[in-house]
Write the structure tokens for this entry.
Amino acid sequence: MSSPYFYHRIKRTLRKDATLSFKGQYYEAPYSLAGHDVYLVFDPASNTTKWIESLDYQKIGEVAVLDKHANLQRHRQRPTLDDKIMPQNTSNLVDVLYQKRQKKFDVTQAITFNTKQEAF
């Protein structure tokens, strides 16, 4: 049994069904992590997978060898978007183009009047 200090990490992206591949074998992870990039932690001496970690090296779940038949029958629910994935203050392309056009044709900023009276 190896020490966790000698485990290797390899970056993988979880597919839409929360699966990933490693050395020709498919593994499944918690469905809430589908679509995210993770590190797969494995023991290089025995080529066994241990767990998955976030990109900041925090353990976030276990992995198991994929049972393809059970995976077909698995009920899934789309993960909810949180503020880390999709910020609330994003604007769509139409809003950005509209604001850009408004700035282009805004004449109030182009015209300035000299309101100071100069003494001669």
